[in-house]
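Re: [help] complex structure
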Amino acid sequence: MRQALALCATTVIAAAPFACAVGQANAPTAASDPTAAEFEKFRQVLEEDNPAELFEARGKELWTAKRGPKNASLEQCDLGLGPGLVKGAYVQLPRYFADADKVMDAERRIVHCMATLQGFDAAELAKRPFSTDTQTPDPVVLVTYVAGQSRGMKIAVPQKHPKEREAYEIGREIFFYRAGAYDFACASCHGEDGKRIRTQPLPNLTKPEQAIRGFQGWPGYRMTGGVMHTLQWRMWDCFRQQRFPEPGYASDTVSALLTYLGVNANGHVYKGPGIKR
Amino acid sequence: MKTLPAWLVRAAALVFAVALPAQSADTRSEAIATMKRDFKPRGVATLDRINEDGVQAVCNRTHDKPPKEVTERLEQDQLTAIRFPADGKLLGDWKAGERLAQSGRGLTWSDPAGVTGGSCYNCHQIGPGETSFGTIGPSLYQFGKLRGYGPEVQRYVYGKIYNAKAYNLCSQMPRLGYVGALTEQEIKDLVALLLDPTSPVNR
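Output below.
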């Protein structure tokens, strides 16, 4: 089934090899575009039987299973609301964690828990962190489960701790920082209203009502390639298309950017893991 | 990257002469330090890409709106550095230009060295046969028909593709010739796509 979906998606988007877009294909500009409209229809059909839910179910099993060198589950993992509390945690991340003295996004925190509670080697997990057509890394599956536990809740990324406010400011700097071979920043694609790359609508992530589109549908089952991806992957692939070098997995840079996006999206309802173009 | 040219040193001096909001200085250096810590080189995407050059630094520090005097001087420097073809011919093959305009490949860490397209359709409407085009840049459809085909227009288009910043310092468009993404012949082919009267763009 997965290969069939991937093939179909590839056919539809064959004309759009450059899709540096964080948002969903349901912007107002898309309505008049037949390709985008077809995509949106296809996405809605798929969502009736959301493939992301399979990953959520698998993630729940992984969360409670005793694993790793320490033969422990993740049930004592503190995602910011206290050990073991998963409901509503995703929409309140990234946040500051005193035990690590770091602002951490959901995936970074889960990797931290896998290292501290279960004894996995974080550096080893960072070597192949993204899904391919042959494997879906554990952190991806776990993030999908955790994100599903915030379905229908409002984004509420905290800004109480000074380090959380600092992460927002640094994230904003990085968002607007133009460099590299093509002089691109995140803002080159995501700083203006109503723009597109090829037929892909680009949300203006500096505005609250559009920044939510940066979160919506992630973690997402991506029709291009037919694999599950998280926001860690989305930031990484945007930097690739920005012609930047490779950002570190679960790094300060990515957490800062996600803080900037998250705070901008605060107050808007997160619909849970979904499907992306 | 290349060694620092004189204009860049001059640009840096100008930037520091510009009055900038003090509030962002610490955050800015912290953000740059964070990126230098976190990024790793991969393939053709070397770590020096994190470093701003003169134009990037001026645009970053002023949110793409540098003071007029700085803008004019730096645009002039960029203009002077454009290498126009020695044979004086600017019009190549529009069909080759169309293929280049379609290709969004090049210079990412997953691209092999030397395979670089123009990425033009990512941001511009160009030929009437391609409906999958971006809107970050203006429409270039009927470019020659609307603006004329003469030598001055050709020179402008060649220069704009070679170094967009020579005409609009903080333009969103890459400096495709200046950074070596496109060769002289490739830029000529793109000029032809826009300015050959027989190109579909002008029909």
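Strands of chain A lie at 95-97, 102-104, 153-154, 195-197, 200-202, 217-222, 227-229, 246-247, 269-270, 273-276.
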